[in-house]
Structures are given as structure tokens and as C-alpha cells.
Design a protein that fits this description.
Blueprint (H helix, E strand, L loop, with lengths): L3 H8 L1 E3 L9 E4 L2 E4 L5 H9 L10 E4 L15 H4 L3 H17 L3 E2 L9 H7 L8 E4 L13 E4 L2 H10 L1 E4 L3 E8 L8 H12 L7 E6 L1 H4 L3 H9 L8 E3 L4 H7 L8 H12 L11 E6 L6 E3 L7 E3 L13 H14 L14 E4 L7 H14 L10 E4 L4 H9 L2 H8 L2 E2 L20 E4 L14 E4 L2 H10 L5 H4 L34 H4 L14 E9 L6 H4 L19 H4 L22 E4 L12 H9 L3 E4 L4 H8 L4 E4 L2 H11 L4 E5 L4 E4 L4 E4 L4 H9 L3 H6 L2 H14 L22
Parallel strand pairs: 3-4, 3-6, 4-5, 6-7, 9-10, 9-12, 10-11, 15-16, 15-18, 16-17, 18-19, 20-21, 21-22, 22-23
Antiparallel strand pairs: 1-2, 2-8, 13-14, 20-24, 24-25, 25-26
Helix pairs in contact: 2-6, 7-9, 13-15, 13-16
The structure holds 3-isopropylmalic acid and iron/sulfur cluster.
Length: 743
């Protein structure tokens, strides 16, 4: 008896070493999505190692994080539109890299351009039972199709480009069952915020989720994607929903879904993709739909949320001292006073968009609130509100339905597709101190712009806040009919433009110019043996990768130049530009070689490998913590940084010792941490494979390329078992210049 996850996993094993249980398996990747922020360094290393992209036909690229969302008129020049030279360099790099490798690319002039997780779904590129990856943590969105979809770091992006496989260990299974019926005005966004509050932001670390129960079955594909999207905010890399009639109806006739010839065969296979009755999960969570209400966050972590009828919590009501302190810090940052009713908090901005809530149904939901209020519905005077569709296809569809007219009439700004104000990588940002009702997924400090204050809500609640100027219970605004999230009803959209079937264009000639890598790869050792030096102590839970390296510094195309930017928001006072007295700025910690964190979930959130590069370049080659975010943990091994897991009380002891400014030594060979001054020796455990990888400084790609025969054998098996996964190779050149930047 197997779970859905077990089945997908077993179907994708290219090679599994039987002799060592802890050793990773080589897993085949069916679909690889690529965007501009996490791919330049991967391509650069690939080219300089004289390697090629193995399966461009299984890869699809788009530009989303850096792109402005202001109108893209026909007469605007690209350098005027994309003023920021650093963003521009990243986008040009993506265009060149995809052109060189024949990967389809949706550029800014292409209607199919949009947020990577939105376009993959709407093109029918992601199919049930597949393994899908992207250098982005919200790849989990696509688990809604019953695909094992998860985010990876840049080194793994390179690994997939070169081998179409990944080396990985199997996760544990957790089922989250939500039964009952959602109340009026309660949406999938409220469900997932409730789930995260229930299990905590680190609750899913090491697990793959399966969402089940009557509530999940009744959700549309768009709503399922919203739930799976925020799986990473609960610490799990992937969340699955078994495919069913709703899934099949959504996929039917999508451009790269199976054609007439193989449709029935595919659906027959997909119907078997469900957890067997009686299969065992490592953990089960049950949630009652009646307990879920329209929800809003108050703090700087997605788990910090309450029903709209709730109040800002009092730090003293938390018994755990570390949590109490974290809540105090959050409230200070958010400018909130304990006991304040959520409904009395006024806002400045509203953002409806992001890979969580920018699909057509999200926009319909937002429009239905406006329609229910009537033509007098207007954005409050104190609020500036924007709506950013997830893709050009979504935008066109919304315009076809006249939703943009409703939005504009009410005073919303109607934008072009992109990540927009979800992340501070493009011109859409919050000003310092501005408070935003946002349909995105991360309310981290500074996430939407330095000093910005983010409250996560559903699109319906965002509109309610826009109209009233403060957080409001959407149920009070609407009549009962308009409040329901749309139920699955098969195809409701016009079909997006064809992904395949266009005439092939000639492959590009290889020129010396495109053969040579443009930037020099700095050799960064993948080896770690031991380190001795000052350890810097930190006592904070959930140190996310946005804290380690803020989004605005992700625009480079190399792995270097990040050391000084580590913990930038903590080290630099942005109002004065002066260095703060944050511990990493103080002697001797400014020369720290080890970081000891006496707080859980270090490195959670975004998949940005830049966080590890920044630590390494600062001089830190070992982080000791009670637990780590899964993607960060993995990224460490790709870069010769040793992550050591020790119990919280031991981390506290080590942090206390580190605060005496005495040296610590970490030795991987003997698996020991030594507090040299006091003679304390603490043993730690690490899997034999990871240990030997670090000791040898292994190049995973080289090793995996050594398994080329096995990969080819798998590909042949895939072709005969699941023929609908093969995409017409001729189509790939068609995208070479689609929506080129060089307008
Ligand atoms: C830039 C990318 C690595 C990142 C992610 O992995 O999530 C981004 O999409 C984010 O939301 O922070
Ligand atoms: S979370 Fe935001 S920044 Fe990341 S992919 Fe989604 S929309 Fe883009």
C-alpha cells in the first residue's frame, strides 16, 4: 500500500543505491521551469564546464521577478522600460542562455509571459504524476496537479540542465485532511493560512504533504494551486493533491497537455495516482472546515495569523520566552499594539497578485466583491491599490470578461504580468512604514520593500480592505451569493495561445561569442573538512533567506559580491546609511567563521542559493542550528558549507560559549564541535553520503553524468510508458526570440 508521493517517487527512480539507505537516489525530472533570478549562475557554470542542456524540450523559461509591470506599449524602447541596468543584465542573460540552448522562453513581448508558477500550469506543461522543479521555492504550487513539484537551488538547476535528474533523498509523508464545508467568504487562502497556523512554519520540514478531504476535493484547480503554493510557508518542499475530474477538465486541450491520440491513455494512468486505502503516513493532521474564518496576518511570519474578528496578540500570552521575544520584535516592526482589533487597523496599500493569488479565479473573486457592492464601490481615499495578473494570458482573459473595467472604475491600478510587489526586485515596492493588505505569500520583514509592513489576506479580503481603508470582514460587505469561491466547473476560460505546433525555425549557429561564458566562474570550494575560529551567536527562530540576503541583491549574474550584504537589513540603518551595532559588525564577530543559531528553522523561505554564497563569502563555512529549511540545507552541501543539526539546548550552550568571544572548532572527520577554551566536546551526526561529499568536495554533476547510460535507459522507458510526456522537439526554436528584450 503506497501513498501518492510514494508512487510518484518510485516511478522516477533512475538509480537507487541499495547498499546505503541514507544515500540519495537519482530521480528523473520531467519538467523544469526557469526564471531570470536563479538561472544565470547555473548556465554560466554549465557553459564554462563545456556542458550542454540535456533536455531543452522538457524545459520552459520566462521572465517574472525583475520585470516592471507598468504598461508595455508598442513604442516603448526596452532600455526605457527596463531602466535598472542590473535587472536588464539578468533578463538579457536569460534570453541569451535560452537562445543558446534552445529552451522555449516567454519574453516581455509574449502574451504567455508571466509568473513562472502560473505559466507552467496554464500551458498544460505540468501534468499529473510528473516530477517538476524550478529554482524557486513556490514551485510547490504545481503539486495541485498531483505532480511532485518543488523548489531547488541554483546548483541543482545546473544539475537538472546537465542531466535532467536530481540526487535526492526521500521525504516523509504527511497527510492534511480538511473536511466539512467552507463558510461564506472563506477561501483556499484562508484554509492554507489556517493550516500554517496549526502546524507552524517549521511543521512540515522534511515532509511532503498530501492535502485531502471534502474541502480539497471541492476546490477548483486555481484554489488548489493557492493551497499548494504556500506549502513551503509551512516548511514542506512539496504538497500534493490527487488528480481527479477537476484536474482532467482543467488540462483538457491545454497547449502542451496530451493530444487526442494519447488523452485517454493518460487519463487512465492519472486515475491510478492516488493514495491506497490504508497506506501509512508518518503524520496525519485533521482540520475542520468550520473552524476556518477569513484570515489576516499580524506579524512577520505567515504563521502569525488570526481570523479577521481577532485582535493583535499580547506577547506576554506566549509561554515560550523565545516566541514571546519574536512576537515583541514582530509587533515593533509592524507598528502594532497588543489588543488592537484587526478590523481597526488602517492600511495604505493593496496588492492583488503573486503566484499565490493572481490567476483568473482570483481576479474573478476580487471583481465579484466589487460587483456585489455595486457601481459606488471605490478604493478608499487613504489607499492606493493595484491588481497584477499572473500572466499575459490571465490578463487577456480578465479583459475579455470586462474585469479590468470594474477594477479601474473602482480606482485600482491594472498592471502587466509579473511578480510585482510580492518581492522587492522590481519597481513595485512598499515605502518604509507603509501598511499593505497583500494576497502574496510572505509577510517577512522588508519583503515588499525596506520597512514595508505586509499583511497576508485572500483576494476577497484585499478588496474589502481597499474599499473600507482598513482590514474588514468581507462577509459584511457581500450578499450570500457572491461570497463563494467558484466551484470547479470544467473549462471556464478561453484557451491560451498554442504552446506547440508552430513551424520550427532553424537552430542558431554557434558563434564564438555565444560559445564562451560571459562571466568568469569564481571557483568556490565544495569541500569542507574542519574550521576553527570565532563563532557568532544568534538567538532567533525562523531566520529566513530574505533576512540572510534581501531580494534587491539577487540581481547579479555571478555568485560573488554578496559577503558584505549578508544580513544587510540588520547591519545597515537604511534611514542614515550607517552601520548598526548588529553583532556581525562588531569585533571579533565581523571575522566569524561559524554561526551558531539558538533558534529553529534556520534558512527557511526562499530557495535563493545567494544566502549560502553570502555566508561563504563573509567567511562563515559552518552553521549550527536545531533545524534548517530543507532547500537551504541542501544548498549548503553544494557549496562546501557544513550545516550541523544539534538539539536546541545544546545550541543555546554553544551560543553562550560563543558570546565569550572564544574560538570554536568544528571537525567533520571526527564529527565533533569543540569549545576549545572550556574543553567541551559535542558530537554531531551527519549522513555518511553528505559527510563524504563535503570531505571530498564532490561535483555532483560529474558523478551524475557518469550515470548517463542509466538516464538514457530511463528516458526510453518513459517514452514507452508515458508517451504523452514527450514534446515535439521542433517547437523549441520557435521561442528563440519570442518577446525578445531586443525590441
Ligand atoms: C527569487 C527566488 C529564489 C525566490 C524563491 O525561491 O522563493 C522568490 O521567488 C521568492 O519568492 O522569494
Ligand atoms: S513568491 Fe512572489 S517573488 Fe516568488 S515566485 Fe511567487 S510571485 Fe514571484
Amino acid at each position: 500500500m503506497s501513498t501518492l508521493y510514494d508512487k510518484i517517487w518510485n516511478n522516477h527512480i533512475v538509480f537507487s543505491p541499495s547498499e546505503d539507505e541514507t544515500a540519495p537516489s537519482l530521480i528523473f525530472v520531467d519538467r523544469h521551469l526557469v526564471h531570470e533570478v536563479t538561472s544565470p549562475q547555473a548556465f554560466e557554470s554549465l557553459w564554462s564546464a563545456k556542458r550542454v542542456v540535456r533536455r531543452p524540450d522538457c524545459t520552459l523559461a520566462t521572465a517574472d521577478h525583475n520585470v516592471p509591470t507598468s504598461p508595455r506599449t508598442d513604442d516603448i524602447a526596452s532600455d526605457v522600460y527596463l531602466r535598472d541596468p542590473v535587472s536588464r543584465a539578468q533578463l538579457v542573460a536569460l534570453e541569451k542562455n535560452t537562445r543558446r540552448s534552445g529552451i522555449p522562453f516567454f519574453g516581455l513581448r509574449d502574451d504567455r509571459q508571466g509568473i513562472v508558477h502560473v505559466i507552467g500550469a496554464e500551458q498544460g506543461f505540468i501534468l499529473p504524476g510528473t516530477v517538476c522543479v524550478c529554482g524557486d521555492s513556490h514551485t510547490s504550487t504545481l503539486g495541485a496537479f498531483g505532480a511532485l513539484a518543488f523548489g531547488i537551488g541554483t546548483s541543482q538547476v545546473e544539475h537538472v540542465l546537465a542531466t535532467q535528474t536530481l540526487r535526492m533523498r526521500k521525504s516523509k509523508n504527511m497527510r492534511i485532511t480538511i473536511d466539512g464545508e467552507l463558510g461564506l467568504g472563506v477561501t483556499s487562502k484562508d484554509v492554507i493560512l489556517h493550516v500554517i497556523r496549526t502546524i507552524g512554519t517549521a511543521g512540515g520540514t522534511g515532509f511532503v504533504f498530501e492535502y485531502a478531504g471534502s474541502v480539497v476535493r471541492a476546490l477548483s484547480m486555481e484554489a488548489r494551486m493557492t493551497m499548494c503554493n504556500m506549502t513551503i510557508e509551512a516548511g514542506a518542499g512539496a504538497g500534493l493533491i490527487a488528480p481527479d475530474e477537476t484536474t482532467f477538465a482543467y488540462l483538457r486541450e491545454r497547449p502542451s497537455a496530451p493530444d487526442e491520440k494519447s488523452w485517454e491513455q493518460a487519463v487512465t494512468f492519472w486515475r491510478g495516482l492516488k493514495t491506497d486505502e490504508g497506506a501509512k503516513f508518518d503524520r496525519e493532521v485533521f482540520i475542520n472546515a468550520e473552524d476556518i474564518l477569513p484570515t489576516v496576518t499580524w506579524g512577520t511570519s505567515p504563521q502569525d495569523n488570526v481570523p479577521i474578528s481577532g485582535i493583535v496578540p499580547d506577547p506576554s500570552s506566549f509561554s515560550n520566552p523565545q516566541r514571546r521575544d519574536a512576537v515583541m520584535q514582530s509587533l515593533k516592526y509592524m507598528g502594532l499594539t497588543p489588543g488592537t482589533p484587526m478590523e481597526s487597523i488602517t492600511i495604505d496599500r493593496v496588492f492583488i497578485g503573486s503566484c499565490t493569488n493572481s490567476r483568473i479565479e482570483d481576479l474573478r473573486m476580487a471583481a465579484s466583491v466589487l460587483a456585489a457592492v455595486g457601481p459606488e464601490a471605490k478604493v478608499a481615499d487613504n489607499v492606493s491599490a493595484m491588481i497584477v495578473p499572473g500572466s499575459g494570458v490571465v490578463k487577456k482573459q480578465a479583459e475579455k470578461e470586462g474585469l479590468d473595467v470594474l477594477f479601474r472604475r473602482a480606482g485600482f491600478d491594472w498592471r502587466e504580468a509579473g511578480c510585482s510587489m510580492c518581492v522587492g526586485l522590481n519597481p513595485d515596492r512598499l515605502g518604509s512604514g507603509q501598511r499593505c493588505a497583500s494576497t502574496s505569500n510572505r509577510n517577512f520583514r522588508d519583503r515588499q520593500g525596506p520597512g514595508g509592513r505586509t499583511h497576508l489576506v485572500s483576494p476577497a479580503m484585499a478588496v474589502a480592505a481597499a474599499l473600507t481603508g482598513s482590514f474588514s470582514d468581507v462577509r459584511k460587505l457581500l450578499d450570500a451569493k457572491a461570497l463563494k469561491e467558484p466551484k470547479p466547473n470544467g473549462k471556464t476560460e478561453t484557451l491560451p495561445p498554442m504552446l506547440f505546433g508552430e513551424p520550427a525555425v532553424q537552430p542558431l549557429e554557434e558563434t564564438p561569442e555565444n560559445r564562451d561564458a560571459e562571466a568568469v566562474t569564481q571557483h568556490q570550494s565544495k569541500q569542507f573538512v574542519s574550521v576553527k575560529g570565532i563563532a557568532v551567536p544568534l538567538t532567533m527562530d525562523n531566520i529566513d533567506t530574505d533576512m540572510l540576503i534581501p531580494a534587491q541583491f539577487l540581481k547579479g549574474t555571478t555568485r560573488t559580491g554578496l559577503g558584505d550584504l549578508l544580513f544587510n537589513r540588520f547591519r545597515v540603518d537604511h534611514t542614515t546609511g550607517q552601520q548598526t551595532d548588529f553583532i556581525l559588525n562588531r569585533n571579533p564577530y565581523d571575522k566569524a567563521k561559524i554561526l551558531v543559531c539558538a533558534g529553529n528553522n534556520f534558512g527557511c523561505g526562499s530557495s535563493r542559493e545567494h544566502a549560502v554564497w553570502a555566508l561563504k563569502e563573509f567567511g562563515i563555512s559552518c552553521v549550527i542550528a536545531p533545524s534548517f529549511g530543507d532547500i537551504f540545507f541542501n544548498n549548503c552541501f553544494q557549496n562546501g558549507l557544513l550545516p550541523v543539526i544539534l538539539p536546541l539546548d545544546i545550541c543555546r550552550e554553544l551560543a553562550e560559549y560563543a558570546s565569550t568571544e572564544q574560538e570554536t572548532e568544528v571537525d567533520l572527520e571526527t564529527e565533533q564541535v569543540r569549545c576549545l577554551q572550556i574543553g567541551l566536546v559535542i558530537p554531531f551526526n551527519i549522513s555518511p553520503t553528505n559527510r563524504s561529499r563535503l570531505l571530498r568536495g564532490t561535483d555532483d554533476i560529474e558523478d551524475s553524468l557518469g550515470e548517463a547510460d542509466k538516464i538514457t535507459a530511463y528516458e526510453n522507458m518513459r517514452k514507452s510508458h508515458w508517451p504523452w510526456l514527450e514534446l515535439d522537439i521542433n517547437r523549441r526554436r520557435r521561442w528563440v526570440n519570442a518577446g525578445s528584450l531586443e525590441w
